[in-house]
């Protein structure tokens, strides 16, 4: 998806998260830029944007203009209908997956790792790689937010509470798609200053 603006502050964002997820950091970043600059969000395929009707309807009502390349003539009515169809497809995929797993289990296929975390500990993989990946992702997200945080601080919002309020006011979501609070702003500032 691409956010294009008539100003020099336009940007390009590529989202690789599943449309099933609501934690979409790149989408949140693109929406934030589109909201701030009045840009139009250009989406490759509407049904890949989200398979959650409430999410698509909220996006439709957010005030951010968007165009789906696969359906450029879409209006509020068609977006609403497509949102409901996409959510139904998500539920159908989930149902088919559950049924396939149940059928495999009925055939005697063992699902998952029978030893769970113990097998990882024996293999010497106690989660260090996972923790390193999580830390690296958090650091990258913090760096993406650095210009926003610096602008907020330059505007005089320097306390953690004021910064959280301003991040929420600007529509910037946390890495997990939630609202900002003092605790996660503290973590963000620590990552940016270390």
Task: Provide structural commentary.
The protein has helices at 25-37, 46-49, 53-61, 76-106, 117-122, 128-154, 160-169, 182-193; strands spanning 2-4, 11-12, 40-43, 65-68. With 194 residues, the protein is an alpha+beta fold. Strand 1 (2-4) and strand 2 (11-12) form a beta hairpin.
Key terms:
8 helices; 7% strand; 194 residues; disordered N terminus; single chain; alpha+beta; 4-stranded mixed beta sheet
Using the alpha-carbon principal axes, give the shape: flat
Structural class, by secondary structure, is alpha+beta
Strand content: 5-15%
Tell me the strand order in the biggest sheet: 2-1-3-4
Helix content: 55-70%
The N- to C-terminal Cα distance equals 32 Å
Number of strands: 4
Number of helices: 8
Show unreliable segments: 1-9
Radius of gyration: 20 Å
Order of helices and strands: EEHEHHEHHHHH
Largest sheet: 4 strands, mixed
Summarize model confidence as the mean pLDDT: 77
Question: Which secondary structure elements does this structure contain, and how are they paired or packed?
Answer:
Elements: E1 2-4, E2 11-12, H1 25-37, E3 40-43, H2 46-49, H3 53-61, E4 65-68, H4 76-106, H5 117-122, H6 128-154, H7 160-169, H8 182-193
Parallel strand pairs: 3-4
Antiparallel strand pairs: 1-2, 1-3
């Amino acid at each position: 998806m691409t956010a294009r603006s008539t100003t020099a502050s336009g940007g390009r964002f590529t989202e690789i998260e599943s449309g099933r997820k609501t934690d979409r950091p790149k989408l949140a970043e693109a929406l934030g830029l589109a909201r701030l600059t009045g840009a139009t969000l250009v989406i490759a395929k509407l049904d890949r944007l989200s398979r959650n009707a409430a999410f698509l309807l909220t996006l439709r009502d957010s005030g951010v203009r968007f165009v789906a390349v696969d359906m450029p003539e879409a209006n509020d009515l068609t977006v609403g209908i497509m949102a409901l169809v996409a959510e139904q497809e998500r539920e159908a995929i989930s149902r088919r997956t559950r049924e396939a797993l149940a059928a495999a289990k009925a055939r005697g296929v063992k699902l998952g790792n029978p030893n769970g975390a113990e097998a990882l500990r024996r293999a010497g993989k106690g989660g260090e790689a996972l923790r390193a990946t999580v830390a690296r992702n958090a650091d990258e997200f913090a760096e993406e937010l650095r210009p926003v945080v610096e602008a907020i601080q330059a505007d005089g919002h320097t306390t953690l509470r004021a910064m959280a309020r301003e991040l929420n006011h600007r529509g910037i979501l946390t890495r997990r798609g939630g609202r900002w609070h003092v605790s996660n702003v503290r973590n963000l500032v620590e990552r940016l200053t270390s």
